[in-house]
Amino acid sequence: MGEYFEAERSYLRALSASAAIKGDPERIAVLENLSTLYLDTNQHSKGKYVREQLGKLELGALNDHPAEKAVLLNVIASLEHARNRNDEAERYFSRSLLLLRQALGPSSVDAAVVQANMGLLRLEARQYASAATLFRQALVEIQIASGPDDPALIKPLLNLAKCESMTGHANDAEALARRAVELSSKAFGEAHVVTANAMLEQASALRHLRRKRLARDLEKRAKAYLQTNSANTSVGFSVSVRDLRAPTTR
Question: Does the pLDDT at position 22 exceed 70?
Fold first, then answer.
């Protein structure tokens, strides 16, 4: 719902209430969700702290649950990526994907998300052909596993749009970004931060196509939604890293 401050507060209360045992599955799940929140809101200093906490856990407790362990490894890989440790990120993504293939078979949304995350590493390294292949594979797999309207399609659509834009295929980029806007509007509403970011990507493609008026209109709406979301969620006023280190009140 975009209520990141409320989500953070709830996760921290759950973390405080969980058992301080290295392999406690509930504690692992809370840290995993908290990591995802910090990644989604670009709070990388907090993500670094949570990554340190995950490093202290005994992940062997999840050996009998390969799919759950794979999802956690994907989160750890994303935290490593946020710290610009891409070799480590690649290693964790690869382990995650292998476990998911073993546990869930050839087509699953979770495995496709990992593929798309690996594609993002390639995109940032300007390996556009390799990145685009991974994004396309992820899109096909998500649609096979979950249908054409799954919100998990949004990120790979936008990242594939970036690839197409960087390689001079503005028409393809605009169509992909437009589809992401449609999916996000349906899943989250037009005023959601995810939809707003998708609008900005579509606007970028429209500018390359010299459709400047439509691009300006999209940018104006997107920036208004982002400003409203920022004011309503109070992300900038959430707990500090120092506060994270102290026990929260139950």
Answer: no
